[in-house]
Amino acid sequence: xxxxxxxxxxxxxxxxxxxxLVNEAKAMPEQxxxxxxxxxxEKLMLEDAYIAPLIQSGMAxxxxxxxxxxxxxxxxxxxxxxxxxxKEKKQLNLISTSDIPTIDPSKAxxxxxxxxxxxxxxxxxxxxKENKAIPGIAESWETSEDGLTWTFKxxxxxxxxxxxxxxxxxxxxxxxxxxxxxxxxQYGFIMHDIVGAKEYNLGENKDPDSxxxxxxxxxxxxxxxxxxxxxxxxxxxxxVYLPQNQKxxxxxxxxxxxxxxxxxxNGPFTLSEWKIEDHYSMTKNPTYWDxxxxxxxxxxxxxVKDANSALNLYETDAIDRVGVTSENVDKYKDSKExxxxxxxxxxxxxxxxxxPQK
Length: 358
Hints:
The protein is α+β, with helices and mostly antiparallel strands. The chain has helices at about 15-25, 30-50, 110-120, 170-180, 195-200, 230-235, 245-250, 305-315, 330; strands at about 50-65, 65-70, 70-75, 75-80, 85, 90-95, 125, 135, 140-145, 150-155, 215, 220-225, 270-275, 280-285, 300-305, 320-325, 340-350. It is about 25% helix and about 25% strand. It has a four-stranded mixed beta sheet with strand order 6-15-14-13, with helices on one face.
């Protein structure tokens, strides 16, 4: 579904009708009704716009049979909290085609960064193997009858890797830092359903206190929305909504999130080593509140840009998972280790027509 995409219209007026349908969809209190309205908008776009759908993507990969409980979903990065390997050394070996651009939740935009943050940090909730939102830093949460106010109750045993407690203030600070126009976060828009967030993010209102996220006390976070968002609890697992320790972030300045030591962690693992364009390692976090559920001691990731080199590493048992490119699918598709997965990305061609640049 291409929600919120603008387009050049063949007829010159249907783009307004499309935008009207999208705005109506966003205002629907029931998710099923919202999807129906989005479907109407999508149908109108495909019939009227200079847009041609191309592909809906997926992925194929190989994974060793001794690896278990390592999973991801289309909108969630690989999660290793519950992962295990059936061998004496509890170590997972992986590759990545690129290095980590940043581990600053306010500035990350890519899958590598989000994967590292998902496993070294924790938000209000975590997504489990059944794609359900389960307690993370929040022990429980509730919504108001009109669906516009969410209240999260935080656990009292969550700590940062420097020993500080993780509090509701860490979430309020983090979200407002992301929305601050000076941060220039590319993902600030994802918070626009929060009262005052859009106006603050776009610089139309310079008062951060106008944003509807507030630490009522150290262990209670209140969020006010402009419309009911039925999936808001799941959204809390997304990397942009992770907490940040204000004192630490400000002490690091521009180096925050750029090295293993210039970042704090509150998740199942810590980033223990990071050698740029070579490798990085995550180690089990002894201060994580649910440390007993973490089975792996270490996750090592080597930067390997060539797909065939990566496959060679897999075949020689140097790594435990590897992506399979389309030209190699036939070679491996009958293997017990071959797996496929749907992706949430849809690619389309948008032609610059009807509105020439001046």
